[in-house]
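Hi L., both proteins are below.
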Amino acid sequence: MKKIVKVICICACASVLMYGTNFINAYENNNIGFSFDVGAWLTNGRVQNGRYRSTTDSNNSWKAQLKTSTEGKGTITVFWLEHKDGTNVSYDMKLYQGDSARYDSVKKKANQSTVYLTGENNNYSDNYYHVSGYWDEETGVYLNR
């Protein structure tokens, strides 16, 4: 009888580790790399692959950090989250190249949906440039807007 209970406990623990990890990872504060071109005349650029926000809490923030920009050191790019159809589902976030990561809450439409990091130049100019850095669609860091 003790062996059966021990086997059941081991199986239960293994199941939690195998299946519970995906749920736990969704709320981790990850650094997902991004790299894309920002177009001229306020043309948006965005990541090719979206990420699923499983949370139902709009205060579970997203984050972004602009590590490099071929526009130059200390320049600004405006980022936000959107759906595949281009619907904006977060508030704009102005990021300076080289600064640390910033966090913000989202609009309700972002929850339980696939979102894409999108960016545009903060200047109306004919220049396009390349940006890269890190983002995460849901961090487990809670902010009130």
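That was the first. Here is the second:
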Amino acid sequence: MPAFPQKCNASHAFSRILSLSLSLSLSLSLSRHRFSRTHQMEEAVVLYPSPAIGHLISMVELGKLLLSHRPSLSIHVLITSQAYNAGSTTSYIASVSTARPSIAFHHLPHLPPTGLLHHLPHHETLALELLRLNNPNVHAALTSISKNHIVHGLIIDFFCASALSVARELSIPCYYFFTSGASVLTAFLYFPTLHKLYTKSFKDLNAVLHVPGTPPLPSSDVAKPIQDRNDRAYELFLESSKNMATSAGIIINTFEKLEPRAVRAIRDGECVPDGPTPPLYCIGPLITSGEGKKEGSGTGKSDCLTWLDSQPKGSIVFLCFGSLGVFSVEQLKEIATGLERSGQRFLWVVRNPPHDADQKTATSAMPDPELSSLLPEGFLERTGERGLVVKTWAPQVEVLSHSSVGGFVTHCGWNSVLEAVCAGVPMVAWPLYAEQRQNKGLMVEEIKIALPVNESESGLVNSEEVEKRVRELMESEEGEIIRERVKSLKEEAKAALSPGGSSSVELSNVVESWKRE
């Protein structure tokens, strides 16, 4: 009968429709369950800084800024073993934890030292190798956090490049947070190109390197760990540079009006000529909000701030060389003699000299210095009316912001440069290590906010040079031009961070890119 097969076909079609309907209903139910579970989970971003205090502070400030744009976020900071003992971060972490409950610190398991690592020539190499060995701990931490959070991204600094593979394995977007300026970033992004251009080590080149968007860079000013292409540090930095170009984005602690040429070169793709450049987000200047003090410094007003209260407005030159910068006894005496001869009022932070006179960084915690044995005889008494020497540490942000401070002799660490810009204080540039020589070129030649210090062939800065530069900064017409320039940039920094400003908008762009799954 012809009607029978038609009836069977209709029945079969009805069964298929019913089956599809049930399947769709079940799928919608599961989707609603997943949607409900997703909306019950907290949103999170994981920050992974290298353990040096300057990198940690910058990363925590980034966390605070993210919270200001999306208060519902929780910020998780991974804390790992220090490659070298440059002082405790315990007090800083405790104070941030108390003041900012939305920022959680995860102390990863301590990595046991290995004999191989202790023989590495640079503390940067040691840091990179230890952070590479830390990948299993990072994987475990990210897995644990992901159980109860939607992790929008892992934000690492340059030294933590090895964690990029961990983020990819867990399908978490990985961003770099570059704690130096855009001019240094151009060089790191361009590093693989320089590697192809030259067969010699930078230390043997005696040439000027031309990096897009930055002043000409003498090969001798390249950071020491990458001077020798046969050095393990060179290999690790090259790998990190290549990885950076494949990240989800680069968040950088600068603002466009401070380094317009470098920012433009990066965004135009000039620094990664053979591939795409990740998005660049200029969200600075980020400087510490003052949480955390030196261990044992107490909670009252610092003695040096009280002393500054009694000094004339804009009269003090402040000398401070970061959390790692150190000088030989000979160099300390030259600084003291130059300060005394300059006739200027000063506040000087002095640290104990290293065991090796050529060493420029402190790779272990040191006791407070015995000033009478380190400085010229009678110096403290002769300069007591106009100068103050502080042992080891001073609250730099508060000092630079004090109305009596009119100049800053700095090691050119990027945090210090930004702090001086935000305070409107002109500088004398005295680089010691890492990328600081490149920062000096930017500060002196490009944005003109500093006078240079000139070293002798032995690396010593004599007392005559100290006297000359301090006087020029505080008294000369050139010093006044620099002072007006940095005051102008202070206003540009405020504008960048204000609602609708360039840095504020770029941070919003980062946050808005993190959509709920």
